[in-house]
Structure formats: C-alpha cells, structure tokens
Specification:
single chain, alpha/beta, TIM Barrel, GI Alpha 1, domain 2-like, 2 domains, 8-stranded parallel beta barrel, two-stranded antiparallel ribbon, 10 strands, about 45% helix
Length: about 425
C-alpha cells in the first residue's frame, strides 16, 4: 500500500503540482471543521501532534499518542469522516520536550515517544533532533553528524515499532519520514529582529548526504525509500504582530536545486497567515507539505470573540463573559504566554488576545474556558439572531448562509471561520480544487 504522500510525489514527477496540508492542532472544534470540510473532496487529511503536546507522559494536551489517535478517530466518527482517510503525523518528534536532560535520558525518552507514535498508527514522522541537549557543549554548534546519528536512533525505534504493529495489524501502512535540522521555532518567532534566511542549497544537500552516510552506517541502506521530505526554511514565518510573506524569487535557487531530487519534497513550517496565492506558489516551488497550526486556532478564537460581542448586543441576562473568562484564566496561569509577549501593559494585554502566535490555544481545553464556550454557544442558539448582525460579525459566513450552504447556529458560524483558513490550503494543494 503506497502512502498518500508518496502518491503525491509520484504525481508531482508528472508535473502535477499537488501538495498536502498538515493540520497541527488538538482542538475538537477545529478538527471537526477540518474533517467536515474534507468530506467534500474525499481526499486524505493529515493531522499532526507535536512532541511537547502529545507524548508518553501526556504533554500539554494531556494525551499519549494512543489517546490522541483515539481522540481523532472519535471526532471522525462523530462527523462521519472515514477513519482510513486520516493520516496521523508526529511533528518535531525527538528530544524536544527533554532538551534540558543529558543525551542518554533525552534520547531514551525520544525513542519511546516515536515507538508509541508508530504503534498508535502514526504514519508520518518528523525526526527532529536539531536541538541542543543538556550535556552538549554550549559553545559549539550541534554538528550535522550528531543530528543525523540521533535521527538514525529514532528511525530504528520507528522501524522496530512498525514490525511490532504489523504483528497485530498486518495491513498497516509503512510510515514515511521527514528529516532536516533547519526547523523554525514551533509557534512562530518571538522577536521581529529574529533572522530569517532561506535555506542555503549547500546546507540542503549536506543534510541529504550526511543522513545517507549515517543511515548506511546504521545498516539502513533503504532508508531514503521512506524519507519523503526535508524541512527547509523557504522564507516564511510569523511572530506576534508580523508575517514574513513568501518570496518565490528569494527561494528560486533552492526550489531549482530540489528538481535534482525527484523523490523528495520540501516541508514548510510556519506557513500560517500566508495568502492562498502565496501558499500555491510554495507548492508549485516544491514546498509540497504545508504545516499550519496557530492560524487555525486564531480563527477559532476570532469566531468565539465575535459570538461574545453578539452576545452583548442580544442583552441576555446570564452571559458567558467568554472574553474576560479566557483572559482571566491566562492571567492566573501565565506559563504558556508570559515569556512570549513583551512591551507595555497594553501591548501585552492585546497580545494575549490578538497575537498571531495565538498562545490562547493552550487555554481552550481549560475547564473554566470550556464551560464558558458551552454557555456562549447555548446563549447564541437560544436567540433568533438577525441575519444583519451575522453579516456584521461573520461576513463570510453570512454569504454561506444566504446561499444555503450552512445554517446560522453558533457552532456553524465558528466553524465557517476555521474553514476559511482550510480553504486557502485546499486552493494551494489540491489539483481538483475548482472542480
């Protein structure tokens, strides 16, 4: 059984500019919106979790890889999306969550993480060993050889786990792998001054050559049959209040070099907030896997804020006070945003709500926040909201309601916001989009 990403690469060799969006999220409303939208295409959907979000110790999502897979499948069943069309992926899988530990402990944890991911049915694995560990020399750049050797250790754990999985599920799809050490900071840059340079073609080729050499030393002569993409920096990124827009001219040398390697594509991280035309250019230029995360939950937060403003207008007695509840929970639990937002009190207050890095997403599963969301949705649905008010707060959703495509209940309005983001990626990656 050929992996869907491999199928895309085969079609790209025939000059069909296909790609795949990688949705990095664990929010149930966002995932529902993604899967409901995907039903109209019948294509595969790639949903990923990160190493610090989902791991054997729970991560910040409080889920193991097994629990995450079951969670996704339960949502798929709820919205009638076929389980077999879901590709589970692991992003930044490696010692990311244990970078403060010595190599032995960090890599043992990392190997256990990828093992559990493969056993849980993940079939798209990003082997990320680019981070310094506690006993690495602090004044020396981590060598490509060290990165590749640690990657080979993870690869072995994955392959051993796949053999074990096949004992129980003989028809399991073989995982494909993503390599590359030029990985952007998860969630966007922290400072506008952070350097942003397109990956140098020598660094790109060096990554391939060193991984091939190291993998062969480990006895994995056929590893590049399963390695489908390399993470590069094509020149896109975002921060709290800035977006680095894709410039295909700046990335032209890199995209031209990729043509010498027809069996792999680029994976682009932090593609959030790019226009649909820029996303399409990226796919055409070889960045065939487009990762998106914060833009999805930003759209969720944006929709919930709009509902909260509508709630105020509707003069309900028992309001959810969602905007205040969310901000108060963030203030009471600042660990997930405090080191990312800087400036005056007002600038920090605005960043908590409106930053593109969307640290709000870490609080959407908080019990108090979830209760507020539930009350907000029930309050809106208890009213016959005027269509003109919907046009004011959800102009795109208004058009869909007007044309009979969606209903005007609260959850549909919020999902419509999220689907607007998803549709930009559909436009970029799907050859049959207009059809």
């Amino acid at each position: 059984m050929m992996h869907p990403i491999t199928e895309i690469i085969k079609k790209r060799q025939l000059d069909v500019p296909l790609g795949m969006a990688s949705f990095c999220t664990a929010n149930d409303i966002v995932i529902e919106a993604i899967l409901e939208n995907a039903n109209r295409f019948g294509d595969h959907v790639l949903i990923e979790s990160t190493a610090n979000q989902v791991n054997q110790f729970g991560g910040y999502a409080n889920m193991t890889p097994f629990e995450f897979s079951e969670y996704i499948y339960e949502i798929a069943e709820k919205v009638n999306f076929p389980k077999e069309k879901i590709i589970l992926g692991g992003d930044h899988l490696g010692p990311l969550a244990w970078a403060d530990k010595p190599e032995k402990e960090a890599m043992e944890n990392a190997c256990e993480l990828v093992k559990q991911a493969v056993l849980a049915g993940y079939t798209k694995i990003h082997l990320d060993t680019s981070m310094m560990l506690a006993d690495d020399p602090a004044d020396v750049r981590l060598s490509d050889e060290t990165i590749a050797k640690r990657g080979a250790m993870l690869y072995k754990s994955c392959e051993d786990a796949f053999k074990k999985r096949c004992e129980k599920y003989p028809d399991s799809m073989h995982p494909v792998y993503i390599i590359g050490s030029e990985v952007p900071v998860p969630g966007g840059i922290q400072n506008e001054e952070d350097a942003l340079q397109v990956t140098d073609i020598n660094d790109f080729e060096n990554t391939i050559n060193i991984y091939k050499t190291v993998f062969e030393e480990f006895g994995f002569d056929d590893a590049f049959d399963n390695i489908v993409a390399i993470v590069v920096q094509p020149g896109v990124e975002f921060g709290n209040d800035e977006i680095h827009i894709y410039d295909r001219n700046a990335a032209r040398t890199l995209s031209e070099k990729l043509k010498e390697y027809p069996n792999i594509v680029f994976e682009g991280h932090s593609t959030d907030y790019q226009s649909k035309s820029k996303l399409k250019e990226m796919v055409e230029d070889g960045v065939a896997i487009l990762k998106v995360g914060p833009a999805l939950t930003f759209a969720l937060r944006e929709g919930l804020f709009s509902l909260a403003l509508m709630e105020k207008e509707l003069n309900l007695k028992d309001k959810s006070h969602f905007i205040d509840v969310l901000d108060n929970v963030m203030l009471d639990n600042p660990d997930d945003w405090q080191k990312y937002y800087f400036g005056s009190d007002l600038e920090i207050k605005l960043a908590r709500k409106y930053s593109f890095s969307d640290r709000c997403r870490y609080y959407m599963a908080n019990e108090e926040v979830m209760q507020s969301i539930d009350k907000l949705i029930k309050n809106i649905d208890s009213c016959d909201v005027p269509l003109g008010m919907i046009k004011q707060f959800f102009p795109n959703a208004f058009e869909k309601i007007r044309d009979g495509k969606i209903s005007k209940d609260a959850k549909s309005l919020v999902k419509s916001n999220i689907e607007d983001v998803v549709e930009d990626y559909n436009f970029a990656v799907k050859y049959n989009y207009k059809l």
